[in-house]
Amino acid sequence: MEVKTEPAGRLYDIFHEAKLKPEAHSSRKVWAEVFDVPEEDTGTILKMLAELIQLTHATKEKLEKLNDINHELYLRPFSQIERVLSHINLDAGWKHWKDQIDEPTIYGLQFCSDKLNRVTNYTKIPNEEIDSIKQSLSELTDQILNSELDNSLKELLVRNLEGLRQAIISFKIKGIEGIQREVELNLGSIILHREEIRSKSISGKESALLSKYFKFIEGLNKTISTAKNIKELGGKDFLKLIGIDNG
């Protein structure tokens, strides 16, 4: 299932998937399967649940800003969702949670999703493209870790890429906005350290690797721009931000 670009749709998909899980499962197992993380990784599960709470709040805010809807009607599902998320016990049986995710809540989220989709009109990103981004990100991280880049620059790039990796892990919850935020943070950190980068006298394989990093960021930016129908910043513009022009 492709991740929806508007927040109510992502909420609907997550809770709809969770509701279909067997009652005999533990809450831990259900949320681990929904978020696609190891069942024993308590920290990540709790982090994803916290992000799910933030998604709920962000969705409510978007609906509250609309002037052409009955706010009482459209916001009704969120009271139940907030009750579900207000008591987190991963060792409890799933039936307790599942019973609270009733059909009116699910249907309400569908209506919210339809409305916000008409307002934003974003394009979905195919799962195959997300899988390709994951693979390219993993390969690039390994190449940088095994490179001869200056240690401080290596740490900077790896830290930036780790932020992107976390955004992609959370893509099901945060959507395209999460990746966009990390792209912006990547560029911001590069601008902040541009004098340090320029002073490294990078050449040869290291220069090619740095260009590959920017090409990867450029590709992500293009994906975001296509999905959100906005103008993208080009790869050569990225390089110029730090005073590098490779033609």
How would you summarize what this structure contains?
The protein has helices at residues 7-19, 27-35, 42-64, 71-74, 76-85, 94-100, 103-120, 127-145, 151-169, 171-192, 194-198, 204-228, 235-241. With 247 residues, the protein is mainly alpha-helical.
Task: Describe it.
- Helix 2 (27-35) crosses helix 3.
- This protein has helices at residues 7-19, 27-35, 42-64, 71-74, 76-85, 94-100, 103-120, 127-145, 151-169, 171-192, 194-198, 204-228, 235-241.
- The longest helix is centred in the last third of the chain and has 25 residues, at 204-228.
- The chain has 13 helices and no strands.
- Helices cover 73% and strands 0% of the residues.
- With 247 residues, the protein is an all-alpha fold.
- The two termini are 41 Å apart.
Shape: globular
**N-to-C CA distance:** 41 Å
Strand content: under 5%
The ordered string of helix (H) and strand (E) elements is HHHHHHHHHHHHH
The radius of gyration is 21 Å
Arithmetic mean pLDDT: 86
Give the tally of β-strands: 0
Number of helices: 13
Largest sheet: none
Instruction: Report helical residue fraction.
Output: over 70%
- Low-confidence stretches are none
Structural class: mainly alpha
